[in-house]
Structures are given as structure tokens and as C-alpha cells.
Amino acid sequence: MAKRPFLKAQQPQEPATPSRGQAFRRLLGYITAYKLQVSLSILFILLGTLALLVPGFLVGQAINIYIVQEDKAGLANAVIQLLVASAAAWVLMSLSGLIMAEVTQKAMFKLRQEMFEHIQTLSLRFYDRQPIGELMSRILNDVDTINQFFEKGFTQLIQAVFMLLAVTTIMLLISPAMTIAVLLILPFMGGLILFTANFAGPAFSALQEELGELNGFMEENITGNKVLKAYQMETHTFGQLEEISLAAMKAGIRANFISLTVLPLATFFVNADTALVGLTGGILSLLGTIEVGTVATFLIYSRQFARPLTQMAQIFNLVLQALAGAERVFQILDEEPDITNKPGAQALVNDAGEVVIRDLDFSYVPGRPVLHDINIVARPGMKIGLCGPTGAGKSTIINLIPRFYDIQRGDIAIDQQSIYDVQTGSLRQTVGIVLQEPFLFTDTVMNNLRYGRLDASDEACIEAAQLANAHEFISRLPQGYQTLLDGGGANLSQGQRQLITIARALLANRRILILDEATSSVDTRTERKLQQALERLMSGNTSFVIAHRLSTITDSHIIVALDRGRIVDIGSHQALMARKGFYYNLYMSQFKEELMHKKA
């Protein structure tokens, strides 16, 4: 195989947070995808707003004409018209709200789907620096704040703007002098909105960040609850939780203090403006320049003018919360996958299973290499044993073969094709993995097995379980293969969970197999049965086996001993024992420990 030029992997940078304007425009894109429904909702809002303006006109007319002239029939007719207009406004606004609620749910469904699908494209580097709880907070909590705005605030904002324009136009047509009295509230409400924008926005952003950190802490500690109990660290975590919760509480108090001062101030300005309108109307009425009914109309319209301003101040809080959430959501969506197929990438041509690692260097963090100059040649059907102390780089090597990370230098080739010239999907269809910590999904045993091959028949799944010596205990479960596994298999023992994951790998039947200390979680009796099954699985396939107990890899064609990211010994068990180097010392040390343990 020709030596490939050294690769320089790019270290992914966390994407910049989008501006509020950018975030808002992108959010609107999710809503405008449903143009017909949104247009219909807006039409109902406009018609409903016009219907809300009718009562003010009817009240003025009733006072000026029907009450003054004691026209009971006309007054009754005006009351009926008022009721009809109010009912029409209620129906139209309700229809608008229902339509917008449906649109919002569809849009948020699409947003959550996009987020989930996008994070599936991201490499393990992303998950290394992104706490799972904080990520869940973005997918659930932040999207929910966006949902709150579109479901409640969006239509109210449109209604408020249209109401302001319509009321102002009508008032100017009736009495410019009275209109000026009404409009005096604008500078005060405008200042209130600016105050909210300048202070509430950063406060809500800080709150979302603190809540994300709190969710991350809770998720981590609930997941690691067994460790906390084992080391009696509950009290210590209480202190940590208190510190993080206090920060979230203070951020919440700041954000809510600012937002909750808006409504009382807005109400004060509205009441003051209403009093001014009443005073102005009273003076003009006494001077005979305006009728009493017109003053009543203006009092109603002044309230209808002020209400949208109050709503806008409150809606602005929803907008700021939504934008704070949107910035965090789009930061995830803007995360560029660092593991991508290069142009012209092809599927793996051969399936022999040869793996060649040449001159490989790798680091998780720039400037801190964890692997140096790794060279391994695994011919088809070979078993490669990897051993060494904790942190030597064993798991890192096996994470690089399916390209979970990109290397900084060197190359990995499968059947003489560089994995960087191969489509990632094709590559990973060739590699089967059994991790040290078994992971099962909250689903039936049968469906968990089918993660190895989705189109597998029940018979194929059962056969794989038999090969892994899992069939016997599965058959004893309450519903056998249809038993629902709780909490990732919490109703099974550690060894049983591992047997199912091995059966899953058997079902997948990949040409290259990676076993990350796969037998370390089972007892000695089960391990013997398991080794027989694994030998059948590895027969004819290329296997990389990380050894917890060196006795499990003594039959390997090649044993690679690692220390501090470097290969310090490589060869067969017999050759390495004869060499009496690093592997020999490691093996003899473990052999003595096992011998002493047996004597004890």
C-alpha cells in the first residue's frame, strides 16, 4: 500500500452565537413555511380587531343619539350590534389562536427534529465538550421558550400593531385634539419597552445559560448516582447543587424582577393617560366643542390604544426569552460536523477485513498528543490484542478505526482504501463494536438485538443470542424476547446486558470486530462460554480486542503493548514472552496477582 501523505485534522471551533436579529429571522423561517395557515390566522386577527373597534363607536352613538333622544328601539339595536361584534371578535380571535397553535406545534416539531438529526451527524468531539444535560436543555427547554412566543406572543404582537394603527386612524378622524391627549402615553411606553430590551434581554440569556448548567449537573449526578452512594458523596453534591441552583435562582430573580416591573408601570401609565383623556374630554365637552358620547368613545379607544402598548411590553419579554433560547438552539444547529465525506468518497470496494495503521499521531486537545507514531498491520482474519496500563491509548486506537475522530497525522486503511477516501456510512457498516460498558435501549430485548441488523428475522436474533449464550436467561424473562428493558436494561445484571450487546454484534456479522474489554463484566463461568462464542464470531474476521485480563489475548496473532501512547512491544504472545520486555513484565505481574488471589 502506498504511503498516504500526513493528514492535518482541523480542530472544530464552537460556532459563534448568532445575533438576535439573525436568530429572529431564522425563527420566522420555521413559521413562514406554513404561509397559508399563517396568512389565514393574520386575516382572522385583522377582522377580529376591526370587530373589537365597533363597540366603542356604538357606545358613542348610543349616548349622542339614542339616549339623548330617548330612542329605546335604537338603543336596543345598538346593544344587539355590540353583542354581535363582541361575539364575532371572540370567534375570529379563537380561530386565529387555534390555527397559530397548530402551526407553532408543527414548526417546533420540525425544529426539534432538525436539532436531533443534526447532532447525530456530529462527531464524538462535540459530545466530549458538550454536557448531555445542557444539550437536553437546549433541545427541550429552549425550544419550549420559542414555542411560548409563537403560540402566545406572535399573534398578540400582530394584533397589537394593527390595533394601534386602526385606533389612531379612527381617533384622528373623530377629534385630533383628543387624539393628542391619547398619544401622550407613547414616550413613556416606548421608554418602558427600551428599558426592557436593554436590561431584560441579557438577564434572560444569563438565566437560560444557568438553567442549562443546572440541567447538566442534575443529569450527570442522576446518571452517576451509584458512584455517589458508593463513595458517600451525597452531601458534597448537595453543596455543589446549592451553588449552581443559587446562581440559577439569582439569574431568575434578576430576569423576573425586570419583567415583572413592566406590567405595573405600564398600568400606571395607562391609568394616568385615561385620566388625562377624561379631563381633556370633559373640558372640551363643557366648552361645547365635543359631545359627551364622543368623550365616552375616546375613553374606550384610549384603553384599546393603551392595551396593545401594555401587551407589547409583556410580549417583548416573551420575545427576549425566545431569542435567548433561539441563540442557544442555533448555536447547536450551526455546529459544523468535523467528520464528513470528502468529495468523491466511495464505498469500501473489498470486504476482506485488512486494517493497516501507519505513522499515526492523535490528540484530543491540540498540543497534547495521546498517540505517537502508531503502526499496526492486521491481515484479514487476524486477532489483534491491545494491552497496556490505563490511559495507554488502547480505546483511542479503536475509536479511530471507525473514524469517530479524525487523526492529526498518518493514515488508517481498510483493504487498501484510506478511511478518509471512504464514505463514513460504508466504513461503519464494516465495523462491529462491543463496548466495555454495555448500553441497551429502553425497548424489548428483540428490538435491542435488531440494532445490530434492523431487517433481521426473529429466528436470526434468537440464533445470535444462542451463540452468545444469552438465549437461556432471555427465555426465562417474563415475556422472553419481548420483555421490555427498563432504563437501558436496569432489570438485568451487568453480565446479562453484556451478553445481549455481544449477541447484537454477532447478529451484525461485521468483517472487522472491536471488543473493548467485552468480557470484563461477566463471571468466570460465563466468560468461558462467551470466549467460545467470540471465537466463532472472530473466525475469518479481523478482530481488535482490548484486554483487561491478558489471558484472553494470548492466542492473538499479534499483541500490541502500549504505554503512554506509544507501542512499546509488538508480536505474538510466545515471541513477547521470550523477549522479556514490557509485555512480559505486565503478564507476569498479572499472573502473580491472579495466583495470589487464588491462594487467598
Q: Would you write up a description of this structure?
A:
The longest helix has 49 residues, at 72-120. With 600 residues, the chain is an alpha/beta fold. The chain folds into 2 domains: 20-333, ABC transporter type 1, transmembrane domain (ABC transporter transmembrane region fold, Up-down Bundle), CATH 1.20.1560.10; 342-430 and 548-600, P-loop containing nucleotide triphosphate hydrolases (Rossmann fold, 3-Layer(aba) Sandwich), CATH 3.40.50.300. It starts with 19 loop residues before the first helix and ends with a helix. The strands form 2 sheets. The protein has a 6-stranded mixed β-sheet with strand order 6-7-8-3-9-10, with helices on both faces. The chain has a 4-stranded antiparallel β-sheet with strand order 2-1-4-5, covered by helices on one side. Helix 1 packs across helix 11 and helix 7 (186-223) runs antiparallel to helix 9 (234-260). Strand 9 and strand 10 form a beta hairpin. It is built from 20 helices and 10 strands. It has helices spanning 20-32, 35-67, 72-120, 124-129, 132-174, 176-183, 186-223, 225-230, 234-260, 262-286, 292-333, 394-400, 424-428, 445-449, 458-467, 471-475, 494-508, 524-538, 573-579, 582-599; strands at 355-365, 368-378, 383-387, 409-414, 417-418, 431-434, 512-516, 542-546, 558-563, 566-571.
What secondary-structure arrangement, pairings included, does this model have?
Elements: H1 20-32, H2 35-67, H3 72-120, H4 124-129, H5 132-174, H6 176-183, H7 186-223, H8 225-230, H9 234-260, H10 262-286, H11 292-333, E1 355-365, E2 368-378, E3 383-387, H12 394-400, E4 409-414, E5 417-418, H13 424-428, E6 431-434, H14 445-449, H15 458-467, H16 471-475, H17 494-508, E7 512-516, H18 524-538, E8 542-546, E9 558-563, E10 566-571, H19 573-579, H20 582-599
Parallel strand pairs: 3-8, 3-9, 6-7, 7-8
Antiparallel strand pairs: 1-2, 1-4, 4-5, 9-10
Helix pairs in contact: 1-11, 2-3, 2-5, 2-11, 3-5, 5-6, 5-7, 5-11, 7-9, 7-10, 7-11, 10-11, 15-17, 17-18, 19-20
